[in-house]
Amino acid sequence: MTTLAELHDCLLLDLDGTVFRGQQPTEGSVETLASVEPRTLFVTNNASRGSDDVAKNLVAMGFDAKADDVVTSAQSAARLLATQMGSGSKVLVIGTEALADEVRKVGLEPVRKFADKPDAVVQGHSPETGWADLAEAALAIRDGALWVAANVDRTLPSEVGLLPGNGSMVAALETATDQRPQVAGKPQPPLLLDALARGEFERPLVIGDRLDTDIAGANAAGLPSMLVLTGVSSVSDMIYADAAERPNYLAADLRSLNEDSGTLRVAPHPSWRVEVGPQDVTVYWTGRDAEDPLSVVRAVASTVWGSSVDGVRFAILGGDHTAHEALERWSLAGSSDQLA
Fold first, then answer.
1. How many CB atoms lie within 10 A of CB 204?
2. Most buried one in 227, 243, 296, 299, CB count within 10 A?
3. Which CATH code for domain 267-339?
């Protein structure tokens, strides 16, 4: 048996919803990451903290992490700006001081007001961002300033639920300016490519909880990926996902890194026969044991992707009692109306 961790020499790990939720590690994440051999890089779309603070927070939760193990969208956003602007150019910062610090590190001058005549706007998550901040940015963008968003996550996972993310604030500015920003973070490639530049890696794996950012970003960068179910995206989301948001592997949480890589791949499974009809998909149990409850999800997804029902809403039906129970565990059994 070859575990998934053994197949790869670098793990590009999302943080919020993957490694932890709020201030609590996800199930088994501390122990698992301490036990695997690949280089672990924490790649976060959250631009509100510097890499030092992120590493300290990870250590406080029990992880082994250094600042050099952390790659933030703030760093990538600053680098993206620096490739397009001259040294000393003014950048209006909508975000935390950590984002402003990254702007300074690349030789640009952070400012906070449109009156300072900025050449660019950089926008990252901050719980303190308000209407007045967005107004300053809107004026600059309408005046022709280059606009870079650290990320466009619409929501931010927390211990109490999903909260508004930077993407929600970006959407407000898009509405106000009729412009679209360049994006440094996932699902665009720059953040992941910046992470890979930290070493010479031949077999990286992207791991995250969001199809629209983590998995889409991996696909955009040409990297394999694994979806974990500890954050935002569900198994239903994955089955109905667009081609650009489909992972190679599916797992309940990070503990699966120490499991057989073959069983985690989104692929047909000997325990399940999946038949595609005109408007539905029917699953039958073959009589073989299915030790992993997610095996039925992988089997369904691998069958419908690229099939005649790909891209439309369809019913998923259990053709027998065992198949129905396996689907019901993931709230998949039923009609297309129930799933809509």
1. 22
2. 227
3. 3.30.300.290
Nearest residue to 161 (alpha-carbon basis) of 22, 331, 57: 22
Q: Do 265 and 288 touch, CB atoms closer than 8 A?
A: no
Residue 174 CB coordination number (10 Å)? 17
> What are the residue boundaries of the structural domains of the chain, listed by start?
5-45+188-262, 74-183, 267-339
Superfamily of domain 5-45+188-262: HAD superfamily/HAD-like (3.40.50.1000)
Task: State the residue for tokens 């402003």.
Answer: 100
Starting at the edge strand found earlier in the chain, the sheet holding 146-149 runs: 109-111, 90-94, 120-123, 146-149, 182-183
Contact 136, 92 (CB under 8 A): yes
- Which residue numbers are catalytic? 14, 16
Amino acid occupying residue 148: V
Nearest-5° Cα angle at 281, 280 to 282: 120
Is the entire prediction scored with pTM above 0.85?
yes
Residue 22, exposed/middle/buried by CB under 10 A (0-12, 13-18, 19+)? exposed
Nearest to 47 by CA among 24, 86, 25, 80: 80
pLDDT in 10s for each residue of the chain, 340 residues: 899 999 999 999 999 899 998 889 999 999 999 999 999 999 999 999 999 999 999 999 999 999 999 999 999 999 999 999 999 999 999 999 999 999 999 999 999 999 999 999 999 999 999 999 999 999 999 999 999 999 998 888 777 888 899 999 999 999 999 999 999 999 999 999 999 999 999 999 999 999 999 999 999 999 999 999 999 999 999 999 999 999 999 999 999 999 999 999 999 999 999 999 999 999 999 999 988 999 999 999 999 999 999 999 899 999 999 999 999 999 999 744 443 4
CA distance linking residue 245 with residue 119, whole number of Å: 34
SS3 assignment, position 74: helix
